[in-house]
Structure of Nitrogen regulatory protein P-II family:
Amino acid sequence: MKLVSAVIKPFKLDDVREALSDIGIQGVTVTEVKGFGRQKGHTELYRGAEYVVDFLPKVKIEVAIDDDMLDQVIEAISKTANTGKIGDGKIFVMPLEQVIRIRTGETGPDAL
């Protein structure tokens, strides 16, 4: 089992969610986050004064999947979140040791 975390631009969330749903992913966790990478923030103008926005708003998507779905999930996220511009985001893949469904007590891939 794997845990796939993707940090993407907020306006791409609906497209990514729909793409994941189309390949059979049933559960997704979404968190609003802030961060920066090579983009290093940007300068904005507010009431005539310039100020630097260091942390840019992003969305973090987390999906717990069985190993055989990994390539499909990565492809779905990377294709739909891609704008071709800086700041499109990153995908992280981590091993997942155990999953337990609280309601039924199911464990492993059955709990996904």
Remarks:
- The chain has two helices and six strands.
